[in-house]
Each structure stands twice: as structure tokens, then as C-alpha cells.
Amino acid sequence: MTTAYRSRKKKVSIVGAGSVGTAIAYACLIRGSADVLALYDTNAAKVRAEVLDLNHGTQFTPPCSVDGGDDIAVTAGSDLVVVTAGAKQKPGQSRLELAAVNVKIVQTLTEQLLSQSPEAIILFVSNPVDIATYAAVQAAGRPYRHRIFGSGTVLDTARLRFLMASKLGVAVENVHAFIVGEHGDSEIPLWSSATIGGVPATAFVGPSGNTLDSAIRDEVATAVVQSAYQIIEGKGATNLAIGLSSAFMVEVVLRDEQRVLPISTLQNGVHDLEGVCLSLPTLVGGGGAGRVLEVPLSEGEREGLHASARALRDVQDSLGL
């Protein structure tokens, strides 16, 4: 962490005071992710209530001032903006079906947010996040492509690691694996590079003799894809884990940690992918999205990744992006 990133106060704005936006704000508050939090939402009564509720808990958290309102000017001077605004995913609805509605919101918001905070990093969480991120980069222009990125498959990767750890009976911290591609139905687990404590995941034997054979791997991959649908069916929205993962990403940027995360960025040639936003392991730090890493892929993984890219491009084309 550089001295510059330690010394001055950091402001994070969150756009959208719904279940996801407030979960992110709450996670940032209790984790001490930022010095200043600002919530923006067009629903004035809702955002005022959420700000009041958060402020009532500040005695019990690391120091942080919390403000908010229905005027986008409340976001001015942000170091990082997290965008959650958009139509909510309904039970049984795919993330890509949300695209047409949310792209228009994203395009307008991107220009407004950059006018308030010209130097800000913008993290998109709104679904479908890959399409939203692509629309935002197009609206802002390619010079902004490192400063605009999506949450991508960071949460999907956490789900994968949790399930792998559960199946093998080991601590999740020892599991290293990635989900890549679309944040959605065509996403790909990279089994060929997954490891447990340095041992290839496909060869690892757990304390009780557990292994990740092909049937278990298929079961885990399906469970990762179905996780969001299952949660939405049961309680209407996924919010707690995305709140925590978003707060983590905020910290990685504000503390210039240079971590490798599977965020969604505009691809520029790695694995022969261009003109689409999707997730690959990427260095993330104070400048936003850095170098995309060319992780070795099996032939099947490469084919799956390109199929995921084609699915996203088809949606982009249908929306005239």
C-alpha cells in the first residue's frame, strides 16, 4: 500500500438504496472500507431512511461519515462509485433479460457520475453486469476502460470456492479457483488451474477421502450457476454476499492492493477476446482494472469462454451497442 493511498480520506458513493445498495453500504461501514459514504437514490424518503439507520450504528463501527440524498451532487468528489441502480431480477428471470431496461439507465448514469467525480473509479454491480459495464465504457469512451469495471464473477468465484471447500472438507482459504466469462448462465469454472494448497484440485484428497471427481465437479458448477436463482426464489434478492464482496473490491481499489480478481472488463486481446466485457483474472488496484492475466486454459475451457463471449456479444448487438 502506498503512502498516498493511506494518507487522505476516501469517499465512496453508492448509487441505488435498494437491498443491494444498502447491503454494500452496511458492509463498507462495518468493515471500515472508506472514510466517507454517500448514498444516492431517486427515492428521497428511502435514501434518507437508510442514511439515518446507518448513522445510528456509527458508534459501533470504524470512523465513517454517512450522507445521502436524491440529488446526484451528493456523489461529488468520490474516489470510487458503486452502481447498483436498475430493474431488479425477478424469480426465473435471467440476468441477460434485464439488459434492455438497465442499459439505458447505465448510459445516463455514467455521464452524470463522471461529471460529478471526474477522477473516480466506477464499479458496476447492476445486472446484467457484463452488458452494463460494456454500455458504461461505451458511454464514457475507451480512455476510461480501466476506471470502469464490473463486479463480474467475483461472487461466483466465492461460491465456487465455498462449494469446493465444503465437498472436500477443507478451509475455503486454501481453495484457489476461478469462474470466468459471463456473470450468468454461460460462466466457466477453470478446473484445470484450480488448486487446494498448491495441489491440483482434481487430484486433491480431503481428510475423509473426499475428491472432486467429474460428477462432483459438474454438480458444483451447476450449483454455482443456480445459486442466485435459488436465493431470489427464497427471499427476493441476493444482497448479503454481494454486499461483502463489493466492500472487498472497494478496499482493494482504495488501498491499492494489486490483487487478482475475476472482474468484468473490456477485453483487449487476451485469449483472443475483444469487444466484449467479461471476467478473467485481472490485477486490481488504485487505478482500477489493470492487466488481464492469461491463465492457461484447457481446450474445453477455451471453447466455453468463447461461447460465453458470443452470448454476450449477441445481446450487445441486439441492443445496438
From TrEMBL:
Phosphotyrosine PTM positions: Y229
Residue ranges occupied by any Lactate/malate dehydrogenase N-terminal domain in the UniProt entry: 11-149
Keywords: Allosteric enzyme, Cytoplasm, NAD, Oxidoreductase, Phosphoprotein
Gene3D superfamilies with a match to the protein in the record: Lactate dehydrogenase/glycoside hydrolase, family 4, C-terminal, NAD(P)-binding Rossmann-like Domain
InterPro entries assigned to the protein according to its UniProt record, in alphabetical order: L-lactate/malate_DH, L-lactate_DH, L-lactate_DH_AS, Lactate/malate_DH_C, Lactate/malate_DH_N, Lactate_DH/Glyco_Ohase_4_C, NAD(P)-bd_dom_sf
NADP recorded as keyword: no
Residues reported to bind NAD(+): 16-21, 41, 46, 86-87, 102, 108, 125-127, 151
Keyword Phosphoprotein assigned: yes
Domain Lactate/malate dehydrogenase C-terminal, residue spans: 153-315
GO molecular function: L-lactate dehydrogenase (NAD+) activity
Gene Ontology CC terms, in alphabetical order: cytoplasm
Pfam annotation, one family: Ldh_1_N
Subcellular location: Cytoplasm
Pathway as given in its UniProt record: Fermentation; pyruvate fermentation to lactate; (S)-lactate from pyruvate: step 1/1
Chain sites annotated for binding beta-D-fructose 1,6-bisphosphate: R161, H176
Record-annotated active site: H183
EC number per UniProt: 1.1.1.27
Quaternary structure note: Homotetramer.
HAMAP family listed in its UniProt record: Lactate_dehydrog (MF_00488)
Name of the protein this chain belongs to: L-lactate dehydrogenase
Species of the source: Nocardia globerula
